[in-house]
Amino acid sequence: MPPPSLPAARDPAAAVPTTAARRRSSKEGGATAAKVHPAPAEKEGKKMGAAAVAGGEGWRLPEWCSAAGVAGILRRHPLPALFACGLLLFMAVEYTIPMVKPDAPPLDVGFVATQGMHDAVAARPWLNSFLAALNTVFVAMQAGYILWAILFEQRPRAAVAALMMFTCRGMLGCATQLPLPDEFLGSGMDFPVGNVSFFLFFSGHVAGAVIAAADMRREGRVALARLYDALNVLQVVRLLACRGHYTIDLAVGVGAGVLFDTIAGWYFDAKNADGKNAHCRSCQCHKALLSH
């Protein structure tokens, strides 16, 4: 029996396809090629190639470790780059700064910055009582707004955040009791009224103002929120000048206000569980209180 290719060899016309056949074949081949997708193995091959470089064939520096890569990071991400420089700076400071002696008072930069105001207030008891009274009014404004939000507007997020914050503050205050500064200027007009004892870490005055201002921003009351922020800054200066809080108490108070406001938002998002009330922006978080 002749091989299959022998008839084609005997008949040259059969071996050469016609022009129409070639065109038809090329069109069909092109359409087939257009429908062909790369196999998953080919896609994974590129990823596996990078892993192979790191695992089997040797390790190479990432692209961002080059001079051009570092320049690109500095241009696109200046804030993380600044924090990286801060990490290196304070690592050097922490490992070389002399420690405060056990019998010495705490070193507080905020106290140093407000020394002049402290001297002025200490020399004028009436001014100390006046500033304390103003601060107590501001605390009442915070509490009044948070109560208004839950009682009249039926938005409990700020109230729940305040409850979480003050509970955590109480636990931390019991866990680590800091000594009252020697230069503390107490007043019967201060909050808590009556010049009674209080927790230093962290500042509930500051955290409450942050929670109230955050709720105002969610409701579009931007001007009122800015007013509370400005009063909060003045409150910080007054507390430092009167030695009512250490600087770390005030700084953590800001963070605590943001933290517990965020946690309260997560709580009501989970309770509503419908995806429509992200961070209580639709003012529907009272439904979670009533339905669970």
UniProtKB/TrEMBL annotation:
Signal peptide: none annotated. Residues 107-265 form the AtPDCT1/2 transmembrane domain. The chain crosses the membrane at residues 79-97, 130-151, 158-178, 198-216. InterPro entries: AtPDCT1_2_TM_dom, PDCT1/2-like. This is AtPDCT1/2 transmembrane domain-containing protein. It comes from the Eukaryota. Residues 7-20 have a biased composition (Low complexity). Keywords: Membrane, Transmembrane, Transmembrane helix. Residues 1-49 are annotated as: Disordered. PANTHER family: PHOSPHATIDYLCHOLINE:DIACYLGLYCEROL CHOLINEPHOSPHOTRANSFERASE 1-RELATED (PTHR34674). Pfam families: AtPDCT1_2 (PF24788).
